[in-house]
Amino acid sequence: HGNSYIFNYANTNLMIGSGILIHGSGGNVGGNQGNTSMTTAATIDSDAAGAIDVGPPSGTWSNSGTLRASNGTLRLAGAWTNTGTLVVEPAGTLQLGGTFSSAGFGTLDRDGGTINLTGVFDITSGFTLSTATGNWRMVGGTIKDGTLNSADGAKIIHTSSSGTLNNVVMNADMDMTASSAQVNAINGLTLNGVATLGTNAALYFPVSGEVALDGTGDVLMQHSNSYIFNYANTHLMIGSGILIHGTAGNVGGNQGNTMMTNAGTIDSDGGGTIDVGPPSGTWTNTGTLDASAGNIAAKGVWSNAGDIHVGAGRALSNSGAFTQTAAGELALDVAGTAAASYGKVTVTGAANLAGTLTITLTNGFVPALGNTFAIMTFASSTGSFATVNGLDIPGPNRFALTTNATNLTLTVVAD
To answer: What's the pLDDT at 31?
Structure first.
């Protein structure tokens, strides 16, 4: 029964011998008083439907025997180390609770089943997920202070119960496709794997010593309600090696005084719209914004000091002003005369222009004399592009760029 106990008192160390078998459908092994410790060399097996809790919740303990989840749930608690064997069988669930480390994790023998991380896992000495460990589910747990590697495609599966990555280098994939899967990344996250975000999934960056997404990884956003989100009074730094892409999603927090700098690549490559920037904050792009197969909706107050590419028939929309600095480049593709055949920028407020504009003809399209293309619309504009590339086109004509009161237009004129 869940209310059956093997219980030692405060200031005692319970020793359980190697010949002992503790098993059944429920129960508790280890005292719940302060300064309680336990050493087990026994076999403890959750061999029937139900849960056995192992370890003094407020104490320390070690296992040199066998802890097995064969047909039920085995829940570990307290501060523990393992020099024995953790066994998970197909019908079993092992819940890694309490506090433990990769250095003291011991041997894991898994043949199916489920492993849930609910405690605090210190990976200072590193840890590798593999076919031997299988995938692990984050159910409110924490991984901290080290590098998590992957072999054989093993990954972390995140759940709606949230979880925390604290100062982690993530070389494994992060599966966040479960509805409302959440992760809190504190003190920086170095992502070198693939994080896949589904419906209402959120990669949160709360206030901490470092608010940064770095590495060479890939964030795949699959829903308009998937988020990369930083909190108020934080400045999210997205590193140059990061690729954020997909069908739809949101990059940047929606709280007050939120800032962001993108040095990575954000590519709307799935046919939908990715919203970029904190709507009530400020941000800068020094990397790449690419509307290659979908659209990008820029939010908040921002400036472009990097590269923007808008594919044929795609759009970069701005809910406020659009500012491009001298270091920025805006590249637009033109594949036909219809509005859905060339890239465009729409600006609700003012367009502040500088830097470079590059026009590229694609799909073999050659415009005819008199063709016009309204490549940018705005409420007002200041400045101009210092460099314009692509005005020369095949044949006897060329593009002329004209700044009007509310738009920027390319017109094909005689050369």
So the answer is: 87
